[in-house]
Amino acid sequence: MKKILITSTLCTTIVFGGVDVLPVEKRTFVQSKYIPDISLVMDTSYVSRDMSDDKVSEFEIPGVAEALLGSHTHDGVAHTPYNASNGFNLNYAELVLSSSVDPFFTVDGVFHFSESNTEIEELYFTSTVLGYGTRLKGGKFNSNFGYINEQHHHSWDFADMPLVYEAFLGMHGLNEMGLQLQWIAPTDTYLMAGVEVLQGENSQMFGKDKIGDYTTQADAPALFVGYLKTSFDIKDTTVLAGLSYARGSSRIDHTDDDEAHALSAMSSIYGADLLIKHYFDSYSFVSWQSEVLNRTMQGTYYDVDSSGSMTDSSALSKDQTGLYSQVIYGVNKSWRAGVRYDTIFQNDVTKSGTNVDNGNNFDKYSAMIEYHTSEFARFRLQYNHNHSLCDENGDRQSFNTIMLQANLSIGAHAAHSF
Amino acid sequence: MNRLLILFLLPLTLCAKLSVAVSYPYIGALTKSIGGENINTVILAKGNWDPHFVVPRPSLISKVRNADALIMNGAQLEIGWLTALLRRAANPKTNVNSENFLNLSHHIKLINKPISVDRAGGDIHPDGNPHFHLDPKNVLILAKTIEEFLISIDNQNADAYKKNYEKFSASWKVKMQEWKEKMADKKGMRVIQFHNNLAYFNKAYGLENIGTIEPLPGIPPSSRHIIKTIKLIKDKKPYCILHDVYHSTKTAEFIRDKTGIKIVLMPHDINALDNIDDLTSLFDYLVGAMQ
User: How near does any CA of chain B get to the CA of A188, in Å?
Assistant: First the structure.
């Protein structure tokens, strides 16, 4: 036994001792050249809000979304939205790994670390050889629905998600397991069509799991997405426009809430996006970006008691529309400034055939200024005036937030799309 | 059914020229010279903008999607934009390892290869300085590389490509001699640049770059570095500031006002300035600006 130990120690010394001497290329079985591209993005912020955290976390948009600014729990895991607390916030560390698999596929993994948990934000393979302008993607990914949904937080122009996305689809947007097929037309003008078949596990809008003994389990996959995008240039101005549609089953479980309830429905969401970006030179631009989202949900609303049994049920239908519109001015490589207007202006809810007046015109105004020390570091000062939320009595609240956000990345990070 | 399809598609393939997408205008010009009427060249980037920061506009995705081949500069010059286009375009012919993909930097001996690669040193190019087409000798190598590439992807027109290359190289050699003579007395001349994008031009004609207005590659000028540069200019008396066309000349003008140094605008590519329509006029201009 001792002999073995000594021999193995000796062997290890020889093997690892040799590593110092031999250059990488000459090590017989070395695989270090195959290390994928690795990058790490960190996002941290200082938040000052003129309303306490516990108060804000109770606020909701009646009939649209609950607890937008507080942490929420699904599947037993707590999720804290970005910039949730007054004072310092460590929003995330995002680890990205990507590489070719073989001549036919690439794999990308995006891992999201927060202080208390880790999530696979994206993990997908992409085909590289299908040809005819087609590309297949499978795994878990951000849907290409709309414009901003596919982008990661660090490429957004504001520290927080547009209100209409956050309210309709939650802080992760449409981030799902499934398959995506995209096709680019063989034309001079950019024209792209895509379809996605997704599992449907969006806590805010889509779901398939049976709740209690009163709803049914929906078929999986439960969510279907389709979109059409086009783009053209007029001199140094680029126009990118898209139409998107998603339809799926909803099983929304709020049976643990104070006002316990559940929802079983069929839901659709229509999106239209438009981006017009004009470049003055290589570094300076002005852009106008807007998206309108309309959603309809039709199904049954279940009142639930504390023991989890259904006490009442009523037919529910929702028809809600919101938009955001933002203008960004890139002064030069270092400075950017922008303003954004958010609103949910239509909130038609009918319960058992009667209209429920939850109010509408839920508005939010934001302004930001950014300083980039390089392409890899940005510091952003953002001001929000939020007039979109109500307290539990349904009274509209107004509050202001100032955020100082730092977003820095290291390593080999792939270039961003337009 | 299949036969019908072939019959229908055959005339399309017969009259269709090979479409070659290229990253920068200078590559487009070389490809046009060598490819002649057999090649349809599609240029992605604009010549008057910073080659490091090309906007990956969706219209460029369509151009890559419809290309039969792709020629790029390489040496990480396209790292910030071309990869996004390639990924979106999903064109097997323009995949990095495809036979129809050409990375020109692999055929050139690069200079200024950094000893240590760390972003604390700014936005450096780990493989060396990528602006190699500004040495006229390299242009000849690039032309030859493109000739061989076009022959490899379109062998039936090999004779045309060979003939076009011979024609190009003969006239280029004449011009090279002319530029050499004009630049002969410039050897040892000291210059300042904004970004070291004329490294190969300077090397070709023996100009000595003693400093850059940006403190580190890709990092905008700081006041401390500007003061240092002014002192350097006063001490070493360089002939001029060679300035690219895409960065603002504001800092250079401030330095000029403090030191009296001349600013010479140096185009880096075709279309960087008006009237620069081909490689010959680019070098004519560069050499002329130094006179």
Answer: 6
**Which pLDDT band holds residue B11 (cuts at 50, 70, 90)?**
very low
Interface test with A, best of B78, B87, B125, B271 (most A CBs within 10 A): B87
Q: Which of A184, A279, A282 sits opposite B65 (nearest CB)?
A: A184
Interchain CB contact of A132 with B (< 8 Å): no
Q: What is the mean pLDDT of chain A?
A: 91
> Taking CB atoms and an 8 Å limit, are B92 and A129 in contact across chains?
yes
pLDDT digits (tens, 9 = 90+) for B39-52: 999 999 999 999 99
Confidence grade of residue B2 (pLDDT, cut at 50, 70, 90): low
Q: Where are the domains of chain B?
A: 15-176, 180-289
Q: Above 70 in pLDDT, residue B13?
A: no
- CATH number, domain containing residue A84: 2.40.160.10
pLDDT reported for residue A78: 66
On the 0-12 / 13-18 / 19+ scale of CB atoms within 10 A, A243 is: middle
Q: Please tell me the distance from the alpha carbon of residue A344 to that of residue A165, in angstroms, as a whole number.
A: 10
Task: Give a yes or no: residue A417 inside a domain.
Answer: no
Neighbours of A228 (CB within 10 A): 13
Mean pLDDT of B221-249: 95
Does the structure show a pLDDT above 60 at B9? no
- On chain B, the residues whose CB falls within 8 A of the CB of A277 are 55
Angle, alpha carbons A144-A409-A337 (nearest 5°): 70
Angle at A339 between CA A334 and CA A344, to 5 degrees: 145
Domain assignment of residue A116, yes or no: yes
Residue B32: CB atoms within 10 Å: 18
Give the C-alpha separation, B233 to B220, whole Å: 19
Q: Which strand (E) or helix (H) includes residue B222?
A: none
In a domain, A341, yes or no: yes
Q: Which two tokens stand for residue A81?
A: 């939205």
pLDDT at residue A31, as a whole number: 86
Partners of residue A184 in chain B, C-beta under 8 Å: 61-62, 65, 88-90
| Beta-bridge partners for A155 | none
pLDDT beneath 70, residues of chain A: 1-21, 24-25, 70-79
- Over residues A287-306, the pLDDT tens digits come to 999 999 999 999 999 999 88
Please list, in sequence order, all residues whose beta carbon lies within 8 angstroms of the beta carbon of residue A133, skipping any fewer than 6 positions away: A183, A184, A185, A186, B65, B89, B90, B91
Q: Are the beta carbons of B95 and A414 separated by less than 8 Å?
A: no
Looking at 3.40.50.1980, 3.30.360.10, 3.40.50.300, 3.30.390.50, the CATH number of the domain B180-289 comes to 3.40.50.1980
- Number of domains observed in the structure of chain A: 1
The pLDDT of residue A26 is 73
| Interchain pair B58, A414: CB under 8 A | no
Please list every residue in chain B whose beta carbon sits closer than 8 Å to the beta carbon of residue A231.
57-59
User: What CATH code is assigned to B15-176?
Assistant: 3.40.50.1980
Please tell me if the domain spanning B15-176 has the same topology as the one spanning B180-289.
yes
Strand partners, A387: A363
A203 lies in which domain range?
A: 2-26+37-411
Per CB-CB distance under 8 Å, the chain A contacts of B53 are: 282-283
Q: Is the pLDDT of residue B114 over 50?
A: yes
Helices and strands, counts by H and E, chain A: 3, 19
| B281 in A contact zone (CB under 8 Å) | no
